[in-house]
Amino acid sequence: MSDGASLNIPADAALGAILGDEDPEQLSDEEFEASVREADTDRLIYLSIKWQEEREAPDYYEKILERTKESGMSESYGLTGDVLARGILEMYEKYPETQELPEEHLYTGDYKVHLNTTIVDVFKQVYDEDSPYRKYAFSGCSGFQWGWAVNAARHILKLGSLPNPALFTVSIPNE
Length: 175
Prior knowledge:
By secondary structure, the chain is mainly alpha-helical. The chain has one domain (about 5-155). It has ten helices and no strands. Helix 3 (about 40-55) packs across helix 5 (about 75-95). It is globular and about 50 Å long. Mean pLDDT is about 80; it is low at about 105-115.
């Protein structure tokens, strides 16, 4: 199962499709790359701060459900994916050796023996705790958003997709 990044499907639309939306938005290559390269970190910071303030309200969950019903998926979900993908893309471009980390070392727990690092560890070294990539995107992202963001950056650089840690495929042996 694809997380949609290699098909130019934004993170929020891809998750919507996985959850049953029939016609996810698909961007052109140029639109997809622009949505990542021009991801608005200031808007994400604003939405994150607003979300933190709203969480204190007694009717917070009712508001979230209402907003989700009105617009499908929260604006911040897709924007978090784009901002995170922008950070990963910039890291890949600045440190090309990170592009070569094999998939089995990106998402499994036995990587320390092999590489003594993961893309997550490198990402944390490249961006300090106060950077908007870590403070507002990475710290609050879901497993699906992280996998989508890695694949979005890889798709833009034509590196090929990796398995998204939030998705799995069930198969029957010998069939």
